[in-house]
Specification:
The protein is built from 11 helices and no strands. The protein has helices spanning about 5-10, 15-20, 35-55, 55-70, 75-85, 95-110, 120-130, 135, 140-155, 160-170, 170-195. The longest helix is centred in the last third of the chain and has 23 residues, at about 170-195.
Length: about 200
């Protein structure tokens, strides 16, 4: 899952949301002590969600479509496309307005906790808000931009054109992988938060 998925799986808890969103920007365990308990819980939850998603049978099948061209980055493309299907899932976002409202609430919550955010995420947040990444996952154009951003941040990738072609060519198959995955990850996270 990418940012929209991590935001949704925070279940409206501001500290969990902050931790869940910054999970990729916090390395190691020692630095965790510098965060409030709820944010720490969100960071650890982010890591567990990523591990769950990586090992899920639906994700493995989806990654197989990207692996010949993108090898180790196949999972990153699948994480992004899961956000596309989530943004269009009427179970979670019955209307475009409900998705838009959700994104605005998430950004507002993150702004209120800005002092806690690592520098890398803090620098990225204005771009995320300005271009409303969370909302724009819903369109294929938004996915094209998301894939380009992924390649821009990756060390060994040069183009996302093939990834976009794979998304379009296998759209319904990938959407089915998302549906095979989403209920499992929601159930998993609810259990983790109740432990």
């Amino acid at each position: 899952m990418n940012y929209l998925g991590h935001a949704l799986l925070s279940f409206n808890d501001p500290e969990i949301l902050a931790g869940n969103m910054i999970g990729d920007f916090v390395k190691g365990t020692l630095i965790l002590d510098s965060f409030p308990e709820g944010v720490r819980k969100g960071i650890l939850l982010h890591r567990r969600i990523d591990a769950f998603a990586d090992a899920h049978p639906a994700s493995l099948k989806a990654k197989n479509l990207f692996r010949p061209d993108y090898r180790l980055y196949a999972g990153a493309f699948v994480d992004s496309l899961y956000d596309h299907f989530l943004a269009n899932d009427p179970h979670y976002f019955p209307t475009e307005q409900s998705l838009f409202d959700f994104t605005q609430e998430a950004y507002e919550s993150l702004h209120k906790q800005e002092a806690l955010l690592p520098e890398g995420f803090r620098k990225m947040l204005p771009y995320m808000v300005q271009d409303n990444w969370l909302y724009n996952y819903r369109t294929l154009k938004g996915m094209e931009r998301s894939f380009r951003g992924l390649v821009h941040r990756a060390r060994y990738l040069e183009s996302s054109d093939k990834a976009y072609e794979i998304l379009v060519a296998h759209y319904y198959e990938l959407n089915q992988h998302y549906f095979d995955f989403i209920d499992d990850v929601v159930r998993y996270v609810k259990n983790e938060l109740n432990r």
